[in-house]
Amino acid sequence: DTTTNFIHIKFKNNNLMKYMADYLTKKKILVRGGGLSVAGFENYLRVTIGSEKDMKKLVYFFKKKQNLIV
Predict the structure, then answer these.
(1) 33: part of which helix (H) or strand (E)?
(2) 25-69 pLDDT per residue, tens
(3) Which residue has the higher pLDDT, 2 or 11?
(4) Is residue 18 packed enough to be buried (19+ CB in 10 Å), middle (13-18) or exposed (0-12)?
(5) Which residues have C-beta within 8 Å of that of residue 41, sequence separation ≥ 6?
(6) Which of 63, 67, 21, 64 is nearest to 42 (CA)?
(7) pLDDT at 37
(8) How far apart are CA 9 and CA 43, in angstroms?
(9) In sequence order, which residues have a C-beta less than 8 Å from that of residue 57 and are 6 or more positions away?
């Protein structure tokens, strides 16, 4: 069995992914900019899953910026 503690979120393009990564980092949410070195993950943002409080905060910020996500 394997488990992960992160999710990938796909963006319309790499610039939007970088914008959201900067935005979330400023909001103290741990993210890692996509998989630029992994083919097929160029427009994805990797978000570490934290506490329920952290996830609610993440959902709140994504709802504000939902037009960026595919």
Answers:
(1) strand 31-35
(2) 888 887 877 655 678 888 888 888 888 888 888 888 888 877 777
(3) 11
(4) middle
(5) 8, 34, 35
(6) 21
(7) 67
(8) 8
(9) 27, 29
Q: Which helix (H) or strand (E) holds 18?
A: helix 14-26
> Residue 18 pLDDT more than 80?
yes
Q: What mean pLDDT do residues 10-26 have?
A: 87
Report the 10 Å Cβ neighbour count for 43.
20
Q: What are the structure tokens assigned to 14, written together?
A: 């790499």
Give CA–CA dist 35/38, Å, rounded. Answer: 5
CA nearest to 15, candidates 35, 42, 46: 42
Instruction: Write down how long the chain is.
Output: 70
- 0.85 surpassed by pTM: no
Amino acid type, 4? T
